[in-house]
C-alpha cells in the first residue's frame, strides 16, 4: 500500500505555527487515513502480543505501558516515522536537519488505572538544542474515560525544569514528577487517527484508564535536531536516523536505525 493511501500529509499554516509557539501544542485531525490506521493497529498489536501480557498492578509502568523501537517490528510505523506527515511538520518546527529520536508504543490497556504524573519529555531524555518535538498518534479514540493526556497550555515557556533524583531512583527508572497546577490542565481528547504534537518542555500527564471495555493505545514518536546531544550522557550525540537534511556528527550520518 502506498504511503499516500495511508497517511494525510499537510503543511502547518501561519496560524498553526503561531499557536504552537504560543501554547506549545497542536492537535492535527485525521493524520492516519482509515487504511493506515487499520494496518498500523494490526502490526502494533502483533508486536505488543509478542512481548506483553495483561496489565499487572505489580509490574512497573515500563513493563505495563511501553514497547520501545516499535518501528523495528511494524513496517507501517517505520514508514510513518521516517517518511510520514510528522517528518514534514518536524522540519517546520525544528528546522531543515531532523533525526528520529524515539519510537515506542505508549499503551494504557483497559484495567490499567495507574496515573502518570506531570512531567516534561525532555526531563526523561534531555536533548540540546531544546527544540525536540513529541508526536502522539492515537490508535483509539482517547478521552477522559480511558486515560487521555492532559497538558497545560503555555507551560513550555518555563523551560527545562530540574528534578533531583537519587542514584537509586535513576537505576530503578522511577517516574520524574513535576509540581503543576491541575486547574490549568486541558484534556487532549482525540479521535483514532488524530495526532497531538507538543514542545519538549510541555508539562503533561495522564490519568488511569478506568474504562472496562476500551483501550487507549498511542504511538509515541519523538524528533530532534540532527545535531542534538544528550545532556545527561556527557554531551554525546543522540543517535537516530536522519529523516531530513544532514548532521555534523559522523555517528548520526552513518546510523542505521533498523539494525
Automatic annotation (TrEMBL):
Keywords: Dioxygenase, Oxidoreductase
Organism: Mucilaginibacter boryungensis
Matching InterPro entries: Phytyl_CoA_dOase-like
Cofactor names: Fe(2+)
GO MF term (any one): dioxygenase activity
Protein name: Phytanoyl-CoA dioxygenase family protein
Taxonomic placement: Bacteria, Pseudomonadati, Bacteroidota, Sphingobacteriia, Sphingobacteriales
Pfam families hit by this protein: PhyH (PF05721)
Keyword check for Membrane: no
Gene3D superfamilies named among the record's database cross-references: q2cbj1_9rhob like domain
Amino acid at each position: 500500500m502506498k504511503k499516500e493511501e495511508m497517511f494525510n500529509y499537510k503543511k502547518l499554516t501561519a496560524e498553526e505555527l503561531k499557536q504552537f509557539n504560543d501554547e506549545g501544542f497542536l492537535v492535527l485531525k485525521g493524520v492516519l487515513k482509515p487504511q493506515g490506521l487499520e494496518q498500523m493497529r494490526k502490526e502494533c498489536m502483533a508486536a505488543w502480543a509478542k512481548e506483553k501480557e495483561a496489565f499487572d498492578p505489580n509490574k512497573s509502568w515500563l513493563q505495563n505501558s511501553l514497547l520501545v523501537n516499535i518501528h523495528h517490528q511494524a513496517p507501517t510505523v517505520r514508514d510513518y516515522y521516517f517518511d510520514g506527515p510528522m517528518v514534514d511538520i518536524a522540519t517546520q518546527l525544528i528546522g531543515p536537519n531532523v533525526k528520529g529520536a524515539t519510537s515506542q508504543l505508549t499503551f494504557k490497556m483497559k484495567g490499567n488505572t495507574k496515573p502518570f504524573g506531570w512531567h516534561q519529555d525532555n526531563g526523561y531524555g534531555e536533548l540540546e538544542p531544546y527544540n525536540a518535538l513529541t508526536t502522539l498518534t492515537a490508535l483509539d479514540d482517547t478521552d477522559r474515560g480511558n486515560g487521555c493526556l492532559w497538558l497545560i497550555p503555555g507551560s513550555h515557556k518555563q523551560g527545562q525544569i530540574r528534578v533531583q533524583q537519587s542514584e537509586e531512583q535513576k537505576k530503578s527508572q522511577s517516574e520524574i514528577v513535576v509540581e503543576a497546577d491541575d486547574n490549568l490542565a486541558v484534556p487532549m481528547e482525540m479521535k483514532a487517527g488524530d495526532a497531538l504534537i507538543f514542545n519538549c518542555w510541555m508539562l503533561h500527564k495522564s490519568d488511569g484508564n478506568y474504562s472496562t471495555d476500551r483501550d487507549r493505545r498511542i504511538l509515541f514518536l519523538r524528533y530532534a535536531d540532527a545535531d542534538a546531544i544528550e545532556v545527561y550522557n556527557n554531551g554525546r550525540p543522540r543517535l537516530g536516523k536522519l529523516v531530513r537534511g544532514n548532521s555534523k556528527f559522523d555517528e548520526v550520518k552513518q546510523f542505521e536505525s533498523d539494525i
